[in-house]
Amino acid sequence: MDNISILSIESSCDETSAAVIKNGNILANIVATQEIHKEFGGVVPELASRAHQQNIIPVIHQALDTAKVSKNELNAVGYTHGPGLLGALLVGSSFAKSFAMGLNIPVIPVNHMQAHILAHFIDDPKPAFPFLCLTVSGGHTQIVLVRDYLDMKVVGQTMDDAVGEAFDKTAKLLGLPYPGGPMIDSLAQKGDGNRFTFGQVKTEGYNFSFSGIKTGILYFLQKNTQKDPDFAKNNIEDIAASVQKTLIDLLLQKFEAAAMEYNVSHLAIAGGVAANSGLRARIAELAQKHNWKSYIPKFEYCTDNAAMIAMTAHYMYLGKQFGSLTDGPDPRLTFEPK
Ligand code: KG4
Ligand code: ZN
């Protein structure tokens, strides 16, 4: 086949990103992070849509310039079809469809969760099929059996909050700014993860529940603050480490059991929480214990980025899985096994 060049756009939440991929190699990956949400302690959907609207054209120009690919060389335009915030998705999908229509090339609607997993194929070493991926982000927590690039099955997921939300909400309770996950991570590195325990919720099969833990942490802090008003401030490192350990224990108990049942020996982690240094270390330990292999994407490919959308669009292009100009964004897009 001739050269395949694809421009891809990610706009599902609070990162506006554009990437260019040529023959499966990422040539540019530009990410504009929206700082505005910090003031509000969480992503404000309307502000996210407005910021995407402002960022999208500069980000796309920069991606094409960096890649040294002209728009007339493009073979297709990929975009995040869902899941995500409707207004945010609308900005990226409308732009992608108009741009593709103007250039008379196909559009490729990409599932954001599938893309987080295919981020593993951007750089070496790449996992071998079948492998099991723990996808952990601010919106999702899934265990996915990956049989091929576009053949995946969710074997377990959260029944309520995502693990990223549990990190962010704990950070909020501790008075830390949004998004709190990275701050919990750095405080945890200096703390004792065995000092405090919080109630764990039992769930069926490989499903997770994180809302009970969040309440457990809230009561724990309230009880201890009544006795000592400076409790949180004076123990913040141990609290962060203990919360992080509780969350990682929950994730890895299920992940290990699922890997044994599905008889896979390659494990991967993906999504924003895969940037967590504790989780990265523990997944490597788990693999070593069983003589399995673990795969951890580069930090910049864990949090939302268009390179992973481009990688998925590349495989969809090869499989001729094109979309149509009448496709609307799907905020609740599920993981359809093909
Ligand atoms: O994948 P992502 O960028 O966006 C979504 O699709 O949700 O994930 C964002 C989430 C946030 O909850 C953020 O706090 C969390 O990933 N996160 C972390 C770390 N870096 C990002 N959580 C724990 N430790 C980190 N180092
Ligand atoms: Zn994401």
Descriptive tags:
10 helices; five-stranded mixed β-sheet; binds 5'-O-[(R)-(carboxyoxy)(hydroxy)phosphoryl]adenosine; 2 domains; binds zinc ion; Nucleotidyltransferase, domain 5; alpha/beta; 338 residues
Notes on the protein architecture:
The protein has 2 domains: 5-118 and 302-318, ATPase, nucleotide binding domain (Nucleotidyltransferase, domain 5); 127-296, ATPase, nucleotide binding domain (Nucleotidyltransferase, domain 5, 2-Layer Sandwich). 42% of the residues lie in helices and 19% in strands. The chain has helices at 45-67, 86-103, 112-118, 163-173, 181-188, 211-227, 231-234, 236-261, 277-290, 306-318; strands at 5-10, 15-22, 25-33, 76-82, 107-111, 131-136, 141-148, 151-157, 266-270, 293-295. A hairpin with a 4-residue loop joins β6 (131-136) and β7. α1 runs parallel beside α2 (86-103), α4 (163-173) packs antiparallel against α8 and α8 (236-261) runs parallel beside α9. The model has no long low-confidence stretch (mean pLDDT 95). 5'-O-[(R)-(carboxyoxy)(hydroxy)phosphoryl]adenosine binds next to α4 and α5. The site of zinc ion has 5 residues, from α3.
